[in-house]
Design brief:
Chain A: Belongs to the small GTPase superfamily. Arf family. Belongs to the SRP receptor beta subunit family. The complex is a heterodimer of chains A (257) and B (615). Chain A has 257 residues and is of the alpha/beta class. Chain A contains 8 helices and 6 strands. Classes of the chains: A alpha/beta (257), B alpha/beta (615).
Chain lengths: 257, 615
Amino acid sequence: MENLEGLKLMAEQWSNQGIEYLQKIPPFQLYAAIGLLLLTTVLLLSFRLVRRTKSNTVLLSGLSGSGKTVLFYQLRDGSSHQGSVTSMEPNEGTFVFHSEHAKKGKIKHVHLVDVPGHSRLRPKLEEFLPQAAAIVFVVDALEFLPNCRAASEYLYDILTNANVVKKKIPVLLCCNKTDKLTAHTKEFIKKQMEKEIEKLRASRSAVSTADIANDYTIGIQGEVFSFSHCCNRVTVAEASGLIGETVQVQDFIREYI
Amino acid sequence: MLEQLLIFTRGGLILWTCKEIGNALKGSPIDTLIRSCLLEERSGEVSFNYGAYTLKWTFHNDLGLVFVAVYQKILQLLYVDDLLSIVKQSFSEMYDPKRMRYDDFDETFRQLRVEAEARAEEMKRTKQVAKPLNGVKKQGQVSKEETKKSNGEKKDDGDKVSVLSNGNHKMEDDVANGKENSADNNINSVGVDVSKLAKLRSKGVRGRGGLRKADSLGSNKGSSKVEPPKKATKKNRVWDDAAAAPKQEEKLDFTDENGDNGHVDVVAAADQGESMMDKEEVFSSDSESEDDDDDEPRSDEKPEAKKKGWFSSVFQSITGKANLERTDLEPALKALKERLMTKNVAEEIAEKLCESVEASLEGKKLASFTRISSTVQGAMEDALIRILTPRRSIDIMRDVHAAKEQRRPYVVVFVGVNGVGKSTNLAKVAYWLQQHKVSVMMAACDTFRSGAVEQLRTHARRLQIPIFEKGYEKDPAVVAKEAIQEATRNGSDVVLVDTAGRMQDNEPLMRALSKLINLNKPDLVLFVGEALVGNDAVDQLSKFNQKLSDLSTSGNTRLIDGILLTKFDTIDDKVGAALSMVYISGAPVMFVGCGQSYTDLKKLNVKAIVKTLLK
């Protein structure tokens, strides 16, 4: 108890001394110091806010088996290494494209995320959508027709997602595996997907006031759906993950990052 | 010999394959393994069969690596588990996230393989002496045991223990050292587990390998019992306590040819507003941390020895450096399993889920400022969301439109056990479809239960949709076929086929059901199950699926495509039946019936269910 009393007394003495010292400083210096402190904090916060709005995240999405993981490693390392299997988790990386390593000057890094395409892992896409600045939707041009419906449904879900509509996130429809002879052309794929999405529109945006599964509807009422009706930009490109033909994808990404 | 050994990341990049054994694998076993086993939360299982191959795997959860070994199914290589674990150890030492090629691992692998093979040879030699005795006894015991069981002998307990010990021997032969210890632990635990295990084996729930034999034996016995009475009276469906005399058969068909006796009141078309299928599900987003406080008092109840453990775990949770061990995970997983079981999840399913979560967390580093229980909870939540998220699209509207384009009706068959609500929910689905401007037709293929046809007729009149009926005591498969032809003729978009309720063990009824499905090739086989069901859900679904696959005639086997969960409003938060059903069958829940009026049909809200399960 006595120790406590002694400590209390000493603390009081020190605080009194501190206050006296403070009062000795001319008021001008004090105000200047506080003002400088406030200014720096305000500047730091504003810088952070400004930087945050410009995200550099690009999502690679698409059905399982369309070639997203191979494309990811092509963009990052310039080779697909020893091949890939069905992904169970997303692959993330922040880097400059492999082909841009030789370029000089300050190139902005791209935060590329390869989201697994398996239907059970669909919720993972929802996690990354809020921070996306652009989306690359990869489609298998070789085995297109059997998967056309599933791919269109996935694309429809992305295009009607609240984040995508509100922020007008641009989407690239990338037709992968074009190095093979029997791969379809991008025009064919684009037309087929527009037709499928038109059918989806008819069946999904139905009588009810609340749309069953989707946040928004797309396209213009009464007209056949076309990608130009979307409020965000949808472009089509070709690529081949295996041989490393990814120029169109890189150009698309660089347009927005 | 080993066909292939792969090492790949969880993100999908292959890091190393064995180049010595350069055999190309037939089909895509690795992809199938990932899709149908690892992503289905069955990673706790021992092995996976694909075509002529068997696959075994192990995880390194900390680095996010998966090691898979593929070998021929007919060979029973003993050293695979051993090899996988030492490969895991040595590879993780040389693993570097930046490196993509590991050619120098070839040498190491060759040495390890030679060592593992040598060890296996030695073990085989020491077991050679004991093996001949065990082998003969094993076969004889199992078949004898099964016959004893189905005839209800009194030596049950003794037999059960012997089954388990034989099972143990089986396991020893198949699997190397590691698994044996876990089997021993199982015996040492409470006696209830032993009997449950034996019961499950005799029922053949898992239905793989030797257990399939057990199930076919059991079902043969069942059918042989029913055969003799069936031969005597072919018309009547005779149960074991057959009271009805043969002469009364003709009088049992009370269908009135002229419809009702003039009591037809003009029923106004039922219009009760919007079906709940189309309403947005609004659920309150409670804070996620509300259950963290619940964990604390529970852990404090344990004896004082835990106090030291608690303090060190708190310390570890702050520093976050500990690698999760099986022993660390066990108490948390056990508590989680208990919690799941109180929410009416079948015991077997809860067990499997916990094993799968354990497999995915073992060896992982704890993130800082997290407790073990919250890590386990997070992993379990992920696993549950993954299971309940449908594997394929459940957009019926789209399928109906696709069938419409092909100018044929979309046929849905409702199957299930007695009294789950097939007819009621059929009417609800018809109401919902009608609201979306789809023309529906009902087919009354329940020709057994008195009043079934009248029930559907009443619904049809209220909804003002056509109904195809042929009265009672007719062959349901033929009635369904004619109904579909009628629908094609009058241009109905959808045909909803109501069938009689049947127990999954009833062989002749299940055969009749597969005949109906084989003959008519419906677009959707909907299993109707009630949310009140407990552990029986596992049995019902697995037996239904098994019978449908066993008795299918054409190459294209139709299994259960979707689940309709009924009586959802009667359970408050004991929603576990949904999880059991989805896990065991792999089919998504397409509708949820939550009341007895036409509008009480809604979709399954995955996040809400997972939250309720883990509350």
